[in-house]
Amino acid sequence: MRLTGRTSITWRLTALFVIAASSVLLALGFVIASSVEQHFEEQDMELLTGKMTLAQHTLLQLRTQDDLDHIAQVLDNALVGHHGLAVRVFASNGEVLFATANAHFAFDLIASSAQRHAHRPMTWTLGQQSYRGIAAELPTGIGAGSKVIVAVATNIAHHRAFMRAFQNTLWIFVSIAATVTGVLGWAAARSGLAPLRAMREQAQGVTAQQLSHRLAVESVPVELAELAQSFNDMLARLEEAFLRLSDFSSDIAHELRTPVSNLMTQTQVALSRPRGADEYRGILESNAEEFEHMARMISDMLLLAKAENGLVVPNCETVHLATELRALFDYYEAVAEEKGLALTLDGDAEVDADRLMLRRALGNLLSNAVRHSAPQATVQVRITGFPDLVTIEVENTGDPIAQEHLERIFDRFFRVDPSRQRSSEGSGLGLAITKSIVIAHGGTISAASREASTTFTVTLPRAGHAQALATSPHEAAP
Questions:
Q1: Burial level of 368, CB count in 10 A (0-12/13-18/19+)?
Q2: What are phi and psi of 378, to 5 degrees?
Q3: What span, in angstroms and rounded, lies between the C-alpha atoms of 45 and 33?
Q4: What's this model's pTM, rounded to 2 decimal places?
Q5: pLDDT in tens, 250-291
Q6: For the segment 376-414, what is each residue's pLDDT rounded down to a tens digit?
Q7: In angstroms, how far is CA 87 from the centroid of its own chain?
Q8: Which residues pair with 124 in a beta bridge?
Q9: Shortest CA distance to 369 belongs to which of 337, 388, 343?
Q10: CA 286 to each of CA 14, 263, 269, 463: distance values in angstroms, whole numbers, following the listed order
């Protein structure tokens, strides 16, 4: 599906390339223009300062008023060959003593600049011509107090023309460079993003039947390696969840098929001919047992589904493990005496847990131990406290469990002996529920089987340490 109304990364990178290149070129052009302008000003000031020094030297050679009257001739001789230079000399009363043909300076402007900012450059425009000049009040050699105002300027129209041409050329060059940069930037961005397109094409090939597909992390650039690995991890989680859901659905269908089939068969048999009230009552009682079995199974599966999705939130309180286990011993005492079993308990500790959930988990372990223990044996429960955790071991004597079965003993509906699907073997959800409850409390559970005994070990955070260990339950092992 093609998304519209969004700017692609390629076009964003292209725009950034164009903006960056244009900004750099404009900044460079501004620096060059400023340098050229400063260079022109330095050249003009060198010329103007030299002519001002020449005028000052000429004025100091004057000795009488008559010499001052003939200053025009003297300055004309001194300025021969400088056609672009404009010079004007004013007496203190504003009388023009000397002026070149192109010198049209206002006395007020010149006098103000000479008195306040002597020898400081200034620019002005007269008609179509632009000038840069300096003005100063210079003494003469006639006597003390004899001064004149001299203004020297040069035409800078050619400088302005050069700068306008330079700016036009700069704008044209920047426009062309921006276009070329945009094209090259687009090509570079498209080439650089090719691995992303390849990842997209591979991702489009992932379906519910091909969740095992993974991206080749080693074939993508370093910048995309983490993204590819994250995508692979996501696929792994999805595959695991899908397989778990698929197995769960298959297990549900398999486990519910037998009771439903029994109910249908009994009902069809009951309807095949008229029967007495006692016979119907017996059939209904048998059906009620099947319904109770199905209700327990559905309740257990609902608990497992909630636990696997993190929806089981324990209502924690301080629980004395020895007290809870003694209460469970009383509950299973009759079954244990029937098999001649002895139930023993060693140790005590406190944990922060949901009392009902923890009792159910421990009850499942104890029921499993009593069911599979050899007659006239002992079921031992040991509680060991550590600084930040507690271990509960439930050991029974009996036939060992094969190693390949230990790896799956906590799976849903798993039974060591597949032939025992009903009766005393339960629904096969007890250990799976126990594991979910333990994990919900931030703990771990494991099973070990030796030559003539099997031990289940539960590790839980000690009271007061549940918050710290709940985030990393696998680190709670002693």
A1: buried
A2: -125, 135
A3: 18
A4: 0.50
A5: 767 766 777 788 788 888 888 888 888 888 888 888 888 888
A6: 898 999 999 888 899 999 998 888 887 777 777 877 666
A7: 71
A8: 131
A9: 343
A10: 76, 9, 13, 46
